[in-house]
Amino acid sequence: MADFEERFHSIVEKLKENNHKITPQRLAVAKILALSKGHPSVEEIYEQLQKDFPTMSLATVYRNVILIKSLGEVLELGFPDGRNRYDGNKPYSHPHVVCVRCKKILDWDFSNLKDMAKRITDETGFKILSHRLDFFGICQDCLGKNAV
Amino acid sequence: MADFEERFHSIVEKLKENNHKITPQRLAVAKILALSKGHPSVEEIYEQLQKDFPTMSLATVYRNVILIKSLGEVLELGFPDGRNRYDGNKPYSHPHVVCVRCKKILDWDFSNLKDMAKRITDETGFKILSHRLDFFGICQDCLGKNAV
DNA sequence: TTTGCTGCAAATAGTTTGCAGAGAC
DNA sequence: GTCTCTGCAAACTATTTGCAGCAAA
């Protein structure tokens, strides 16, 4: 089973376990989140769904993303400009590399962050729940262009 | 000269260098940002200024924070819930520890992040400009209480 | 049949902007 | 005196919510 199929399955299972109804719209959102190599925004999910569900509303996308997030099956990457991005492929804290021009987001696997979390707990008494590490820069594609 | 006085001075210098007028409101915002041990939000800056500048508007606070940010003299910490926080004390990328209950933010000095940035450039071609590392957890104060 | 979900439209909240008068230099 | 800044109010935008009808189980 491909990686994203596993993720899709896992999200649907969580929905059923928690007695949430399985609607076509909900499944469609779950599928896009499970694929989500590109860390889509709510708007992007909405646009992708327009061809299969022309009457679907943005509110429904928001509600389902929030629901799936509350089940711990998607990672939310909040940005100050109010375009949050979602990662349903790897719904746990991990580093990202973000292009400040085209807004491309890559995963960046790596971790001695666990050790760091332990040190913080020892020194400050914080109980660490999650972390976020983003590197902001300009991707190779954008460096090639001279556009904005 | 105390640390924050140095920062305040540096901000005012940058303002002058770039031909921005020195108004009492602007100075007051700069001073709070320079102090900013607590990583204030725009709202908090506004409230602190109410006693000295009762007629000052939120828009003026926003405009001055944005201006000082554009001069590279304050670090913006954006959060998805739309309560951005500002650090004028250390206006360069550095790790933070955030309490998810009371929203306290501590600085957390540490860095082998430079090495990591270099590795990313080597492997992805990204030109890294800045980074952001946040640890989210519950602080000792909040762990003591059982309240929300 | 019951309960929760959807679509629509209106409400919300942080932030930004247009404009006229005030103030820095 | 000139040009920027400020205060006010309105505009903007992402997100959330109330409600009536609809659909999953």
Explained architecture:
- The structure is a homodimer of 148-residue chains.
- The first copy, chain A, is an alpha+beta fold.
- Chain A folds into two domains: 1-88, Winged helix-like DNA-binding domain superfamily/Winged helix DNA-binding domain (Arc Repressor Mutant, subunit A); 93-148, Dna Ligase, domain 1 (2-Layer Sandwich), CATH 3.30.1490.
- In chain A, 44% of the residues lie in helices and 17% in strands.
- Chain A has helices at residues 3-17, 24-35, 42-49, 58-70, 113-124, 140-144, and strands at residues 75-77, 85-87, 96-99, 105-107, 127-138.
- A three-stranded mixed sheet of chain A has the order 4-3-5. Chain A has a two-stranded antiparallel sheet with strand order 1-2.
- In chain A, strand 3 and strand 4 (105-107) form a beta hairpin.
- In chain A, helix 1 packs across helix 2 (24-35) and helix 3 crosses helix 4 (58-70).
- The N and C termini of chain A lie far apart (41 Å).
- The model of chain A has no long low-confidence stretch (mean pLDDT 91).
- The A-B interface holds A 76, 78-82, 84, 97, 99-100, 106, 108, 110, 116-117, 120-121, 124-140, 143 and B 76, 78-82, 84, 97, 99-100, 106, 108, 110, 116-117, 120-121, 124-140, 143.
- Chain B binds a DNA duplex (25 and 25 nucleotides) through helix 4.
As a percent range, the share of helical residues of chain A equals 40-55%
Write down the domain tally of chain A.
2
Strand order, largest beta sheet of chain A: 4-3-5
Name the largest protein-protein interface in this structure.
A-B, 35 and 35 residues
Structural class of chain A: alpha+beta
Outline type of chain A: globular
Strand content of chain A: 15-25%
User: How do the helices and strands follow one another from N- to C-terminus of chain A?
Assistant: HHHHEEEEHEH
According to CATH, the fold-level topology of the largest domain in chain A is Arc Repressor Mutant, subunit A
Q: What is the number of beta strands of chain A? A: 5
Number of helices of chain A: 6
Low-confidence stretches of chain A: none
Query: Rg of chain A to the nearest angstrom?
Result: 17 Å
